[in-house]
Fold each of these.
Amino acid sequence: MACTLVSAAISALLNAGGTESAAPSIPSQVTRKKPITKEVTEPHDSFEQIDHLILSANYSKATQLCEKRFESASLGDRQRARYRLGLCQEATGDFQRAANTYSNLAAHADSRLCLLARFGQVRCLIGLGDFPNALTLAATLQLQVDDPSIFGMSLYGELLHCVGLIRYLQATEKTPEAPAFSTACILQAEAKTPIAHFLEWEQLAVELLGNESPPLEDGPMLVYRDESDIRKSSVTLQRRAITAAQLLADLADACDLSLEIGPEEKRRLTGISIRSAFAGLTLSEVLSSLSMQCGLVWNIHAQRLEIIGRPAEAPTVQSRERSECCEAMECALDAAPEHPFAPFASAAIACLLFQQGRYAEAARQFELVLAQSPDEQLSRITEYNLALTCMSLGARSKAREYLLNVVDRNNKDELAGMAWWQIARSHLDADEAGKAISALKHAATNASFRVQAAACLGLAEAHLLLGMPGTADSMLQRPARSILRDDEFRTDAAFLGALTRFRMIQRKQQSSDESEDLLWSLLVPSSNSILGPAGTLLRAQAFVELGMESEMARFLEDSLSEQRGPVATRLIVMLVQHYQRVGKWKVAG
């Protein structure tokens, strides 16, 4: 099934400026301090003036005033200015400089802005593509979400959504970026910073805490066991410093679990110091955070807490990363369902389910995104993805309904052209080449050169199936020759061109040159073909026309497991008839 989940840039977090729905959770007894929006002229470099410039997206001027504030004699003022400078750099995409700015601020462990700066580092590391370090730092912060310096801020929900985003990017970064017409499925995420949101956090910290960072007092570990599922036991701990090994030992002891750690893992855990300030986290959440920090894997089985190294085998890694991504996204949605990242998280889960071939579950998840997402573009992309999922389930009529909705919302962009192409693909897969032509003509008028090229290949394919090689040849002359030489189209264009020329001269006289061209085109691997089951049928027919039925049989034996629908039935008939002709009755049966 030639189905693709469109590769689309989606705003995973709010655009700069934020919205009310993204505001942090603040205790009811605290009056929210609204961001300063009125212009203040005296003094000209006051924080009110800087905040006004930041909220107006005048980052250049705000940066100048922040740098001037560094001349202040007050350490607290210099730290406030540095935090704002980091926000300005982050908002303009200068993630490396922003990370350095936040790192400088986070180095002051006694600063009340330390944890906010470290969360800024997490966001910048994501922007830089440094996912392992971003994940480690986010996991560290997860165990400090109840630190007194960030009282009243919903940092835990923010961190969970960041972890979900990191897990998704990790699960997909090793997959080649999918051409729009291949069978791969990648949904790209573009994280943007809600600057107003994080600026308000700093303003709230000043209002509630002043310039002093409340001390973190050591306290006992409190565990409220859940006898039905020990993983759901509630854990509370405040500790300025404790080794990861000791924390695991205390957790295991409090939950009556035997602890099994290999010598190498134990050495690693002993060398990691943990600052802890959390209340009411589940045992599962605490263990997951520790595992992310230490690069290990945990498991509870038969009253044993096992800590092991992460397996390095590639298939295991890919499967594990997808599983971890789904778990992280689901945790984030449970903890902060109203977060602006939530629609993307739901869509990402659906994409991963599609990648795993779990089409029925993916369809339900995409339907959930459609029902909940207010974003027009995400809804449109989701309808496209849902259509492709329906095609994978064989529900072609339903798929066409979703694809027509995509076109109705906007009939001019590349997604509209791809929707027309997929409508045609659904007809070709159903052995209805004649019905595919109208949709392919719509796709051929799209502004995207890639869609035009794919449409012309589809038109050539359809006319070859209808026994019209002359018309197929004219279709292949339409797109610029250069685009048909791109990796995305080259193999299919070469095969269709060779088959077209072969069939055009076949009625007149046999041409060894054309036969040789066709044979060579058949020998090129077609794993990335955009032609779908109908393309497989044409290749099988080409082998027969060259008098190579044995090669046709071997080709179909390798290809049929991936084929579904009416065209697949024709392919099975071709293969069975071949076996009957050569006397392989048992195989034919």
Amino acid sequence: ICICLNQTGARFHGPIIGAGAYTPEKAEDLIEKGLIDAVAFGRDYIANPDLVARLQCKAKLNPQRPESFYGGGAEGYTDYPTL
């Protein structure tokens, strides 16, 4: 990833936002190294509507339930527990 990101940063001068299977630790490391500017936590956010608070206090994240992500109903969108 780092080699590809180094090459991208050399050719593209806008913000680089990573997405897909990032852990908070991996995101923080790549941001600190200047390889990316931000990370999108889509699936983790669906499973943790209070994701920012959980990351700030290093709380355990709810497990994702991929089978409910795009069901069209409340399940998977509004039924995950918050802190």
Amino acid sequence: MTDDRTPDVMNPKCPSRLMLNHVTSRWGVLVLIALLDGTLRFGALRRRIGGVSERMLAQTLRVLEQDGLVTRTAHQTIPPHVDYDLTSPGIEMAHAVRALADFVERHLQSRESSGGTSAGD
């Protein structure tokens, strides 16, 4: 931060760096994008993302909730279940990372069609 109140992501001591790290992590991006379509239970979210362990998904959801991007709603039903959804700032952030993911997908397709290096090379 440039002073005690102004966020500056370029400053290594700025707390915004921690949130940026959470959001742009492999699973953070995918959780935010998956929740753009609406509320999901833990199992449905895990299936939608694919490849994420229960432990890693739980950890990712916990930090995104602490960052104010995701809400967790526990229902007192039998069996109990928990819903996850985006907050207003979470929706805004999810749209931003969705645009980033769209760019990556388009760029990858154009590289592959032009004979560029693919992700597996």
Amino acid sequence: MSRRLRGNGLPIKIGPFWISLRSVIPDLLRHIAFFYAQYETAESERFFDFHITLKNSGGLRRWVKPQANFLLDEYAPFKPLPYVHAFAMFEWGLNWCIATTAHHYLIVHAAVLDKDGQGIIMPGVPGSGKSTLCAAMSLRGWRLLSDEMALLDPVSRAITPVPRPVSLKNDSIGVIRRFSAGAELGPAAKDTAKGTVAHLRPSLLSIQNASITCLPHAIIFPKYEAGSDTNLVKKAKNRALMEIQENAFNSHILGKEGFDAAKSLVNSCPNYSLQYSSLEEALVTIERILEDAEVTT
């Protein structure tokens, strides 16, 4: 794996996307080996959706406080970051690649998980507790489709998985370590633009079933509030539609097609707001939602 990363590029299949990744940055090589060793690769030349390179920024920076540049087909969309942030930069950069190109989907900023063919979509802004709740669910046997984006087919409403490491920030890292002794977390990157960031390795179940779509059975808008009781309330469909549109990366590009897809989504299954502070109580509540969910096909 290291040899191919340093050479012509390591092919990795992540959900529906084929990526060719090149880098000689030691910290990134270690992270890729830890998080992506179980993903499908290719031995021969093929079509790639994204040719990604992370390289040093050159000049004096090569020797003093070295920095990493993210390149997509030799285009650098971001400012360089310290070497120790290279893996976080790769993950953020891949988010950008997908969100700015995969317009055959309505792409919603949301975590998506599945149990027994029943999908849960959890849209959320930073600080909502979405990724923490997503990580906890994945550690309790839920199949992870994504902690960052729901790839929704505008016609069928099927959600295409793109399972990747779950990004945890600041206090959430310790919360998940305490929640499960089996949580496989990578090293924390400190002092990033988002604070301290660490990633949770997805389950083998999630990786091996990355080609299996699911239909949403409920939409849950989570909100973490320290010390609060667990409070689940039905959300009006017009309000849910507005928030789905606000959390969609490409609704402005898809136009009416995107609006119709979002409307069909919220009309097809129940919508809830979930306030929580206890992960255990939140998980029990979500299980009950699935038991009661009525879905329109």
